[in-house]
Design a protein that fits this description.
single chain, 146 residues, alpha+beta, SH3 type barrels, six-stranded antiparallel β-sheet, 3 helices, 27% helix
């Protein structure tokens, strides 16, 4: 009887771990598509980025998901390097980054309300949008096909 209940627990736990693992990994961001439900990305792999002005705290996380451990808090003006292709999770685009001090982890790029992460130098077409909001940037991309 114990073996059967132990087997049931192992199966339930294994299924839970598989589901959690899939939630953490998410889909990879394709430059031409972006993440479903997320605003259009402004950053790219290999580029320098900064935590956006007005962001009081952006969490550098262990994995690309809101419910994972926090490595360190980041603040407006902190510089980062984008290390790898973005990941889609929870309607957000997550980027693996490295801080100026060498810490590595994942940060969300932003929501429809605000970007948390910006390229160190804005693209010319982004600089022309006043105010630069995730909605305005995404709509511009859809309307111009860029």
């Amino acid at each position: 009887m114990r073996a059967a209940s132990g087997l049931g627990w192992a199966i339930r736990t294994g299924i839970a771990l598989v589901i959690i693992g899939v939630a953490w990994i998410g889909d990879t961001v394709r430059a031409d598509e972006g993440c479903p439900g997320a605003p259009r990305s402004l950053v790219a792999v290999g580029a320098a980025a900064v935590v956006a002005p007005g962001i009081d705290r952006l969490n550098l996380r262990i994995l690309p998901a809101r419910d994972t451990g926090i490595i360190a808090p980041l603040y407006a003006g902190n510089t980062l390097t984008i290390l790898s292709q973005g990941s889609c999770n929870g309607g957000l685009t997550w980027w693996q980054v490295e801080t100026a001090s060498g810490r590595r982890g994942w940060v969300a790029e932003g929501t429809w309300t605000a970007y948390y992460l910006l390229p160190e130098t804005l693209p010319a077409d982004a600089a022309a949008i006043d105010p630069l909001t995730p909605l305005a940037w995404t709509l511009r991309g859809w309307l111009t096909g860029a």
